[in-house]
Specification:
about 250 residues; Metallo-beta-lactamase, Chain A; five-stranded mixed sheet; 7 helices; 13 strands; disordered N terminus
């Protein structure tokens, strides 16, 4: 009896320690202007806010992938001040050097806080079309361009950024972390139940075709972070296709 009691006590201690370890590893963060949520072993979602005339206060998502002492960030926050807050969190809480920031298209919800990344000498990468559109708008311009597919290493892990086709904008790209099958869909992908949103620069005819091509290319994706709203699984892709197929 004493033997079984000892085993039971040891098991409870082990579970308690494991629970404490898991809680400690979740370094999620919330402030007035920024929310950071752990969504994978090596992935966080960041959310900042943009005040708009048409849609009011809008939550704007990005994604952080980290491995070892390095991190890559998809999308800046919506302002330089909030970007400074995000950068400080990655450096001080994750203990990571930011290897790259990647705005996924040229709108303010993706690169509104890019100047702060540049001020802190953090490399920025974007679709060459994003660079051209940012230059035409006379806003802060990402410094390194690519066409098609960009491979980056974070620690010993691979992170992909790819232009599949037009949709929300002519330049929208997605980010993908194959290690955990987590995708940052950006504004190309809608949360389930969302409306069509800002169509000022959209190609609504190409949009469902682009997302269907995305589904074909990344059939194993498990979790998707949209540009706005709640993350989810492949049902976000299906919803987006359905939304823009009904013209």
């Amino acid at each position: 009896m004493l033997k079984y009691l000892s085993v039971l006590v040891f098991s409870c201690i082990l579970l308690s320690c494991q629970s404490a370890k898991n809680h400690e590893s979740d370094k999620s963060f919330t402030s007035e202007n920024l929310k950071i949520l752990k969504i994978g072993d090596q992935v966080y979602q960041h959310t900042s806010y943009l005040n708009t005339e048409s849609f009011g206060k809008v939550d704007c998502n990005g994604m952080i992938v980290f491995s070892g002492k390095e991190a890559v960030i998809f999308n800046t926050t919506t302002s330089d001040a909030t970007s400074a807050e995000l950068i400080n969190w990655v450096k001080n809480t994750l203990g990571c050097q930011i290897k790259a920031v990647i705005p996924t298209h040229f709108h303010a919800d993706c690169l509104g806080g890019l100047a702060e990344f540049h001020r802190q000498s953090i490399p920025s990468y974007a679709n060459n079309t994003t660079i051209q559109l940012a230059e035409a708008k006379n806003i802060t311009v990402p410094k390194n361009g690519f066409t098609g597919l960009l491979h980056l290493q974070v620690g010993h892990k691979k992170v992909l950024t790819e232009f599949i086709g037009e949709g929300h904008t002519p330049d929208n790209v997605i980010g993908y972390f194959p290690e955990e099958k987590i995708m940052f869909g950006g504004c190309l992908i809608k949360e389930v139940g969302a409306g069509k949103g800002n169509l000022e620069d959209a190609n609504v005819t190409a949009w469902p075709t682009t997302v269907n091509q995305l589904k074909t290319k990344y059939p194993d994706v498990k979790l998707i972070v949209p540009g706005h709203g709640k993350n989810g699984g492949p049902e976000l892709l299906d919803y987006t296709v359905k939304l823009f197929s009904a013209q």
